[in-house]
Structure prediction request, 296 residues.
Amino acid sequence: MSREMSRKLSTHLLAWRHCALLMRTDLIQSLSERTFSLSSSQNTWILKRQYQLKLIDLEHRHPVRRQIQMSDQVYEVVECTHEKPTPPIQLLLLTDVPAYGKAGHLVTVPRNIARMFLLPEGKAEYVTPEGIAVFEAKKREEALHPELQSSSATSLSTVAHLSDILLLVPMNMHNPWKLERWHIRSALRLIGVWSPNDDVIELPQQEIRGPHLEMHGKSFSVFIRINGKERAHLLCQIDLRCKDPADALPVLDTFKPDQFEPLFPGAVSDENKPTTLKRRLPTDRPVVPRHQVVDF
Prediction:
């Protein structure tokens, strides 16, 4: 072998070793990144043969020739468990959970809500015979004291929602008016809250008449009776509006403020505490935890 051929062969060998090292490094990196995808998945696939399997004559079969053909290994997918929607799960509530129920109630919730919120936080447990016995005792106790139980499963969450919002009541800036209950009901309908009638709305004892430009953005409290039992405190603001854009007043913020200027002394109830919600900024981006992305 000549010196030139030996030099070329050694160059090719070095290049091949370098490529092999790169391929090995990429393979290890890809395996480390795909650890979860390579893990075993507990799914069930139900298959059926696409072609009917022929019977084999065991007495006259050929000793070498293959008895099962390639067409006998063609299958069709009938059902896959991970593509089927998971059914909800039944739990026994240990504490009062707004929008779901009170302590001792049996509720049916999605599996992701149960496994990521209710069960880890100790607000619910799986249904057991012992839990059913406690549930029956809880029902008997509530029957003896009806004043301690809420009117419905969603009444507490409705009270919390109304207490955390700021209601803008649109009023005319030029024509004289007097604030009435139907004004509050119309303003609630604008934000998607439906009131059955005006009797559930309690206005301040002092009459509110206008228009006055200094009333724009001033706050006052009203009370909403829910199912004739719970009482929600709703913070409202006068929003003076007109048809001419040239005469329009500054647009009010719909987020409940920490400090409010009352319309008159005592217009804002002491029970209207500041909201516990955080003001959402334009730069805020929703962050979804990894365990909340996929449903169980």
